[in-house]
Amino acid sequence: KGFVHYTPNVGILPLRKTLAEIILRDKNVSYDPEKEIMVTAGGQQALFLTFTSLLNEGDEVLVPDPGYGQYTSGARLAGAVPLPVPLIEGHNSMMDLAYAQDLVSPRTRMIVLNSPHNPTGGVLTRGQIEEVCDFAQKHGLIIVSDEAYDRILYEGEAHISPASLDGMDKITVICGSLSKTYAMTGWRIGYIAAPPELIAASIKVQQNVLLSICSFAQFGALEALRGSQESVRNMVGEFDKRRQVILEGIEKCPGLESPVAPMGAFYFFVRFNVPEFTSVQMCDYLLDNAAVAVVPGNTFGANGEGYLRISFATSYEDCCEGMERINSAMRKLLG
User: Fold this and answer.
1) Residue pLDDT, tens place only, 53-83
2) Angle CA(30)–CA(31)–CA(32) in degrees, nearest 5?
3) 20 to 30 Å CA-CA from 57: which of 183, 188, 244, 291?
């Protein structure tokens, strides 16, 4: 159809209109598709544009630790200072706001929220989201809400966007992604939903970084959003089966435990009880002795040391075999 030319910096209007309709339906937040929605090269660029558009040299950003690595690197690329905030174990990967309170200074500008959470799979309750919103309002902070996994939820969990709470859309930036929901990682399509002044600033950055997003990928994204969502429901159901395999495998495996049973995303953040091993050494051991690749916990921040992340974004059969191999390797290691 000839969709092979430049598009507007902000993305094609049909896709922005559809995103606005879906955000209103699923998140109960109303956005003007012409001024408050921007198409990006995946959720990762949505975060990058947000950081570079909002942050000045020396500004501070509260980030979850453990958390997705780009919160720290993106803040630094914008000249800002990331302030790691530990999570409260057993509380759905909620950031420790009492700890954050002691970090806040006049230079603190932003707090990053991620639910469902990477790497733990924790999903925040409405009450916990409200606590973060109250904290942000008290300290005059912008909330950057990374909602890449908003459709991947288990056991009836609901996704709550902070932007949906009363008046919070004025100080919240939603960074979204189609990569996980529609298995479109290589297409690089995400979005920003935010007040018009942020979108206007991000368009200026986009002009100098990427110019515009791949034209035919945007039309493909439009079809994904407008078409039947049965494939998404089936995918989440399949993920849930794999989740149970990993959970049962960890329970049977010596030296491993999962403090958080993931209620969203497709990860387990697993604590290992091998005192002489660092996270990197533990992952190297499993790679060398079980031929299974997992991610060192400290990749996600200093508080991730002593953990490893297991992804179940692979086949059911590979999940079963992977856990059997890990179990065998851990029994060998621990005698």
Assistant:
1) 999 999 999 999 999 999 999 999 999 999 9
2) 130
3) 188
Distance CA 285, CA 279 (A): 10
Take residue 134 and report the two structure tokens written for it.
Answer: 């109250």
Specify the residue for token string 């399949």: 238
Q: Model-level pTM?
A: 0.94
Q: Does the pLDDT value for residue 268 go beyond 90?
A: yes
- Whether the Cβ atoms of residue 260 and residue 121 lie closer than 8 Å to each other: yes
H-type helices in the chain, by residue range? 13-27, 42-54, 70-77, 97-103, 126-139, 196-209, 215-226, 230-252, 279-290, 316-334
d(CA 334, CA 331): 5
C-alpha span between 72 and 302 (Å, rounded): 12
How high is the mean pLDDT of the chain? 96
Question: What is the CA angle 60-65-71, rounded to 5?
Answer: 50
Share of the chain above pLDDT 70, in %: 100
Cα dihedral value 260, 263, 269, 270, nearest 10: 50
Return d(Cα 159, Cα 120) in angstroms, integer: 16
Tracing tokens 């508080």 back to the chain, one arrives at 303
Q: What angle do CA 274, 277, 283 make, to 5 degrees?
A: 100
| Cβ count near 160 (within 10 Å) | 22
- β-pairing, 60-65 vs 94-95, is unpaired
- Residue of 294, 303, 299, 305 whose CA lies nearest to 250: 294
Tracing tokens 């993920």 back to the chain, one arrives at 239
Q: Looking at residue 1, what is its pLDDT?
A: 87
Q: Which two tokens stand for residue 125?
A: 């309750």
Q: What angle do CA 51, 299, 175 make, to 5 degrees?
A: 30
